[in-house]
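[step 3/7] fold_predict: job queued, chain A
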Amino acid sequence: MKIKNLSLKNFTAFEQAKFNFCDGINVLIGTNGTGKTHAMKAIYAVLNSLKTANMLSNDLEKLFNIHNSNELIRNNNNTRKATTFFSHKNGRLEFSLGISDGIINPDSTIDYKSEIDIEVNINNSETVNFVYLPTVEMLSIYDHFFATYERKEIPYDSTCYDLALALNAATLRNTHADYQSVEPILKHLQEIITDSKSQEQDVVVKESEHFYFNLNGNKLDVNLVADGYRKLGTLFYLLRNGSLTTNSILFWDEPEANLNPKLIVKVAKVLQALADSGMQIFIATHDYLLSHELSLLAEYPSENPTKVKFFSLHKPNHDSSVMTQEGDSLADISHNPILEEFADYYDREVELFSNEDSSNDTH
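[step 4/7] structure written:
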């Protein structure tokens, strides 16, 4: 399964938007509040509803940690419960979210207030896993997570719950086809985390529902390991237990969070390897280095180039809806807030340097 495109109408920050995705790495950039996470969660919610046969409005409420999916309709003040209509036909998944006292059905003439339309390539013979990595780091809070989540003692949305379920799976045997297909990537991740090519033990293990790291002969409690390594360890364990495979779909919100620049460059290489193996990837990022490392894959392609596409989300003003722009590299994007801020930084530095130079000349 591959996500081909996404159309949003009157959904959260979007009045009307369309995204045409590639089969490899799809990179969403934009300032805070421009809907990067919302676009990814819209796709994830539809896929999850298709898989579990749940009411999509219920999935959306859990994903956005809200009490009424009506709140997702842009500029809507109606307080009645939203009703949903969901259809699946010829590779197109359509979802409409509207306000109604009755039941919405395919023949209904109700004017829907909000719509999510996703086109996918579906092979009915394959089972596709999809995983959402939120900004929250999960390995260190995995203990007792399910009980506290069910009692609503923690304010996390359902992406965290779904991720905890994925981490709950047992690791695959080394002879399993899914393990063997990602073994080179696992070894690469293990080398990044341990800074060693010789370690044979899995870098991340789960014992009695608690995670540990094996680092250069030492077994360390997960809470003694740096947050950035825990994020990479999460990805390692999801590949190790088969929750992520070569035909999976990965959503990763801000992969760069808590990573130093050297690790960010290595993460870009890991994302490239995952995409080249057949995984479709969606990431939302604010990071200059990660976005530009991925852009280099498109600007200077190898013999077998990695498919990469970029999406800029921006608002002309504070009250307007989000506009989208897409391109095959960052060079094709005119609205790039990451690059714009670095250009402003350079201008500030030049100004300070000039002022200091002028001050020295007067003395």
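[step 5/7] annotate
Residues 337-362 form the longest helix (26 residues).
DSSP finds nine helices and 14 strands in the chain.
exit 0
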